[in-house]
Amino acid sequence: xxxxxxxxxVVGAGPxxxxxxxxxxxxxxxxxxxxxxxxxxxxxxxxxxxxFASLERFGLPAQVVASRxxxxxxxxxxxxxxxxxxxxxxxxxxxxxxxxxxxADQCSRFGxxxxxxxxxxxxxxxxxxxxxxxxxxxxxxxxVISDWVxxxxxxxxxxxxxxxxxxxxERADRDLVEGVGVEWLLQVPLACWQRWSDQLSFCLGSxxxxxxxxxxxxxxxxxxxxxxxxxxxxxLQPPLGRVLEQLLERLFSPDERRASVVxxxxxxxxxxxxRRRDCHGRGQLLAIGDAVSTANLxxxxxxxxxxxxxxxxxxxxxxAIQSRQPFALRRYEQLLAQQLxxxxxxxxxxxxxxxxxxxxxxxxRRLSSLLAGLESRRAEDLAALLFDYRFERYGLxxxxxxxxxx
Length: 406
Description:
This protein has helices spanning 15-26, 52-57, 96-109, 170-175, 190-196, 240-251, 254-259, 303-323, 332-340, 343-356, 361-372, 379-388, 399-402; strands at residues 4-11, 31-35, 49-51, 65-75, 81-85, 91-94, 113-116, 118-126, 129-136, 141-151, 176-187, 198-204, 212-218, 223-231, 261-273, 281-282, 285-287. By secondary structure, the chain is α/β, with parallel strands linked by helices.
């Protein structure tokens, strides 16, 4: 691929990069989509729950859906258990690997070029174009010349670099929240799977996961995704792999554990800015998805918002390409902020306060009191709360908690 020339190079074939690449290719743009993975089904670290409205909005096909859900189950703090169930399904759990592969296939179908096993590590301006260097799995370096480069490489920002160069200010430190997660895909007995099917289950409280939470999501029949996430991990805390094992010991019977098989182990880092002050681009080098903090910290949800960032950028980039006037992109950051909405920063503040404070019995009691206020709500209300950030569904009694007054 020496001397390869294209109009747009998209680095990262996740939801953000794959969605943007397929939109550009469908519009007739010469686009090259690259990813460091040799197989897009690898490293599928995302439980990928979303409401039906998002499935329809982004036109995602049935082949990327692992299961449907119509209820919620909250376990904890301690031995508490709460559940809500709707009459009809409320959403889906996606097969993240299948989603990435479908987006890449769509890009190819519309005439785009997809190449895997390439890691981008440098991008420099050369007059009116950009020269990007990529390294393949054999260590060979390749150069791509393009008019535009999109950094969709996630929180690592392979080409744009860290969103805030060190040292960071104290305020920036509070604005930037980091978390680490571990997730297993389990093959379980059908009776065990049925107990967890049809609902999204979360484990809350410091005795489950200190400064974080756990989850159990149904996948295809007989398969579950079980994971734990901890924000701003402390090295003195138990390793997350051990925390996940302890969670399974509490949730599964000895017979169920013996009959279960771990099909895949994966993990990942989430880094997101509550106020989203990340650099969204420099000239013809732009960023989308997790590279501009579209992962929401409240539930570690990123797929919907990564797709949204591509939907915001695509028409602006097409306008700049067609008119050769890059000023059309000046509104990108503003329009993306409007798309995510004013509730975004509030959800981040709630996430930081909720998860980072879960260090002992007193924090568990505060969380238990907050959850008790939801018991009279419907499953649909919880969906509006967790996916649309409709915090008014909590009621006025929760405002002091949301604002950090108690």
